[in-house]
């Protein structure tokens, strides 16, 4: 897990032509997307279509991802972050919990940018697997350069599920996806790009990475 400092990020949405600033508290994020070996060890199954221990897990839904977070928290004796509503396949976030969770999209973009202000934290071919260099397949995590805070594959390889609902009034329960994937064109692999999908959706270029809230300072 990598310590991500506090800061402010401005989110934007091309569809509505709107932008809004968000303050981000310090938190921790996994240096890599969750790998297939890690997912199998905690969840007890291998859902991915391509197979490889260090490949990002894919073919996982948002619902799968929040269940993984809770399972990992229990394995490490931490308080689970989510109260799962099994019938509705949704969850409530206990923000006081010290367990693992999905990043918010503001946390994700702040972590991706790592203090930069451009569309990417480095030259695209140096930092991301995308349509132009992936040879039509997913790649092992950590094969490209990290950003300044030590986070790998924030752009390209697999899209990351985020906690947030995309736009409840228009898209209902659809959740946010960030980062672009191995099959995407260059314009999808930018820090500001937002995508959305149903929380039960599974496909071979969508995975996730995990986060934890930073512990509060002692009084």
Automatic annotation (TrEMBL):
Source domain of life: Bacteria
GO molecular function: formylglycine-generating oxidase activity
Pfam families per record: FGE-sulfatase
SUPFAM superfamilies given in the database record: C-type lectin-like
Residue ranges annotated for the Sulfatase-modifying factor enzyme-like domain, each copy included: 1-212
PANTHER family: FORMYLGLYCINE-GENERATING ENZYME (PTHR23150:SF19), SULFATASE MODIFYING FACTOR 1, 2 (PTHR23150)
Name of the protein in its database record: Sulfatase-modifying factor protein
Native source species: Streptomyces caelestis
């Amino acid at each position: 897990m990598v310590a991500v400092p506090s800061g402010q990020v401005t989110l934007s949405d091309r569809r509505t032509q709107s932008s809004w600033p968000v303050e981000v508290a310090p938190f921790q994020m996994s240096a890599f997307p969750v790998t297939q070996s890690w997912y199998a060890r905690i969840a007890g199954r291998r859902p991915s279509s391509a197979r490889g221990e260090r490949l990002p897990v894919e073919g996982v839904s948002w619902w799968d991802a929040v269940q993984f977070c809770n399972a990992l928290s229990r394995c490490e004796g931490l308080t689970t972050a989510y109260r799962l509503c099994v019938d509705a396949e949704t969850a409530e976030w206990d923000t006081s919990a010290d367990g693992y969770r999905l990043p918010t999209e503001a946390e994700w973009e702040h972590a991706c940018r790592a203090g930069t202000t451009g569309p990417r934290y480095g030259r695209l071919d140096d930092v991301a697997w995308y349509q132009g260099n992936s040879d039509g397949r997913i790649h092992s995590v950590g094969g490209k350069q990290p950003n300044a805070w030590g986070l790998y594959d924030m752009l390209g390889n697999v899209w990351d599920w985020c906690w947030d609902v995309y736009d409840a009034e228009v898209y209902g329960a659809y959740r946010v996806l960030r980062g672009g994937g191995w099959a995407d064109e260059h314009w999808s692999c930018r820090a500001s790009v937002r995508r959305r999908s149903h929380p039960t959706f599974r496909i071979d270029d969508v995975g996730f990475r995990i986060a934890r809230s930073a512990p509060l300072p002692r009084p």
